Amino acid sequence: MTTPIIHHLTDDLLMAHASGSLPEAFGLVVATHVSLCDECRARLAGYEAVGGAVLEDADPGVAMAEDSLAATLRLIADMPEEARIAAPEPAAPVFPMPLRDYVGGDADTVQWRALGGGVRQAVLPTARDATVRLLYIPAGMAMPDHGHGGMELTLVLQGAFEDAGGRYGRGDVEVAGEDLDHTPVAAPGPDCICLAATDAPLKFHGLLPRLAQPFIGI
Amino acid sequence: MNERQATDTRWVTCVTRIRDERDQTAFARLFAHFAPRVKAFLMKSGADAALAEECAQEVMATVWRKAHLFDPERASVATWIFTIARNRRIDALRKQRHPEPEDLTWGPEHEPDQAETLALQQESEQLGRALQALPEAQRVLIERAYFGELSHREIAAETGLPLGTIKSRIRLALERLRQEMT
Ligand SMILES: [Zn+2]
Ligand SMILES: [Zn+2]
């Protein structure tokens, strides 16, 4: 938690994550941001408390099966004891835990695919209603100017990028919708690594990126 | 202390007894209250009665198994069980995972602060009352969101939920935890 986070998640994203209605790909970005941001962790916990209140008020007219307590105790007896020792932490991880879970390790274990110009990506396995990928953008490199067919969440994990919306450093998240066109540029300094989720293809304005789109798959 | 508050702190005691003493009587009390609610919640989320029964049993078994992870300074028992039931629902009905933030846990010797625990349970109870006091249409919309019936696009940013105090309460707990960690 070196530099303060300026760009946070929106309330509708936090409520959708708390209620379990967010596509998995967006959920990964939310969980990763929350791992770095106590402000959004507290907001998310607030929305989960609403879920607790909804559960508390759920119709108690529904009855459990006659033998269900005994059946549950049998389930418990059959379960292995929960291991209380956590896996060893990398010394100074670039990726918070939820992201390491999907990658299978920290930033040094990502299976990158080159996209040209030093840009690399790795698509992570999630349900298909939205996609999420890691992007590696060399310092100073501009991403193609583009618009959005749906929502795009971009979370910075290393380095920084800038666009008309401001500067985004580690932990910052940009929430882009159909009304936004932008040209993110990786800031000078360490190369930029970000986690980006989309639920519709981007709309590239230049000719070259449009040709590249089928290969990039964004 | 009104009835519901007393109840909320009693659930905390039940979870602590399960954690420390593997107390089946405490578990039976939690089960009698929460298992039917979890089942009703899952049925409203689209599960049939048989699947909801099966998942509710699994959710309650997880309550037993993960009792040591419950933090009464940051959540009520109902909230904690809701998150377990929500994750089970996503897994069973949508065949997806629910990515969870990195756990922030107090050191092994940490004893939950009584005053903080009570305050958090009170905030949760006030939030529950505020939810019931919302205009019918708005309350129904929020319930539908939590039953998983609304897409994230349909969830309005401005829900008018009074989350201010519970958010700052949790924020304070996180600050104390961060201080303890460094
Ligand atoms: Zn945040
Ligand atoms: Zn974009």
Automatic annotation (TrEMBL), chain A:
Which residue intervals define the domain ChrR-like cupin in the entry?
A: 106-198
| Superkingdom of source | Bacteria
Q: Which SUPFAM superfamilies match?
A: RmlC-like cupins
Q: Which Gene3D superfamilies match?
A: Anti-sigma factor, zinc-finger domain, Jelly Rolls
Kindly list the residue ranges recorded as spanning the membrane: none
Stored Pfam families? Cupin_7
Under which name does UniProt file this protein? ChrR-like anti-ECFsigma factor
Query: Which organism's genome codes for this protein?
Result: Rhodovulum kholense
Taxonomic lineage? Bacteria, Pseudomonadati, Pseudomonadota, Alphaproteobacteria, Rhodobacterales
TrEMBL record, chain B:
CDD domains, A to Z: Sigma70_r4
UniProt keyword list: Sigma factor, Transcription, Transcription regulation
Q: Which residues form the RNA polymerase sigma-70 region domain?
A: 30-97
Q: Which residues form the RNA polymerase sigma factor 70 region 4 type domain?
A: 125-177
The record's section on InterPro entries has: RNA_pol_sigma-70-like (IPR039425), RNA_pol_sigma-70_dom (IPR014284), RNA_pol_sigma70_r2 (IPR007627), RNA_pol_sigma70_r4_t2 (IPR013249), RNA_pol_sigma_r2 (IPR013325), RNA_pol_sigma_r3/r4-like (IPR013324), WH-like_DNA-bd_sf (IPR036388)
Q: Which domain of life is it from?
A: Bacteria
- Tell whether Glycoprotein is among the UniProt keywords: no
GO MF entries? DNA binding; sigma factor activity
Record region (Disordered): 94-115
User: Which BP terms from GO are recorded?
Assistant: DNA-templated transcription initiation
Its family remark reads: Belongs to the sigma-70 factor family. ECF subfamily.
Q: Name it.
A: RNA polymerase sigma-70 factor (ECF subfamily)
Q: Which organism is it from?
A: Rhodovulum kholense
